[in-house]
Specification:
alpha+beta; 263 residues; Diaminopimelate Epimerase, Chain A, domain 1; 2 domains; globular
Amino acid sequence: MAITFYKYQGTGNDFVMVDNRKGQFPADDEQFVKYLCDRRTGIGADGLILLQDHPDYDFEMVYYNADGRVGSMCGNGARCAVRFARHVGVIEDVACFLAADGEHQASVERDLIQLKMNDVQQVERIGEDYYLNTGSPHYVRFVDDVQALDVYKEGRAIRYNDRFAAVGTNVNFVQQIGENEIFVRTYERGVEDETLSCGTGVTAAALVASLRGMQSPVKVQVLGGELQVAFEQAANGSFKYIYLNGPAKQVFTGVVPLEVKVV
């Protein structure tokens, strides 16, 4: 038996996408998911997403990290899932779906997907750095030259420090490059390396940038392209009406056997 998969990418953050509305995918097989995401022996991706039926929503998005484990919210993955749901006829131009961190709304506007993120209630200050949860945990550090930084080395050191080692955190390095524009590079847990883009990380970086004087919307450059984050900040420091806007595209499709023996 074999399943059809689709490869999608959002600003270089890439995902194996599977329509699992019939429940045929071995969702509990961690090693199989890891195999599919492997860039040398499998399809290759930063993560895998299952599109599933849900009685109360247009669909449910189940996200797996590249290590095969079920992950938390993935912003770029969610935008790709919305594009995929439209491709297979589950939605038209608007969606209300369920992800790991709860309900989300999204809209399709030509090449762009606008995704409503959940509210952020608190931003923790850690020395000169910041820590917050935008559906996934994110550590944010502003630097002078993000292009020259060793993101793997510096990000890994924070992700595996005494506070974060057990559960992990994503680590974002941010440089202001314009009045309301930043450049972000991210070390992602689960991938355990730098990715070309991270939607929840870009969101976290933009919110922190507003604490340093930037105004909504914040334009965000990543290695894989460009995103935009719009939001409202409340008097108590929390954030609401957060929207992540950017492209999501199908790359290719194929078939993979379910009987693959993963060593």
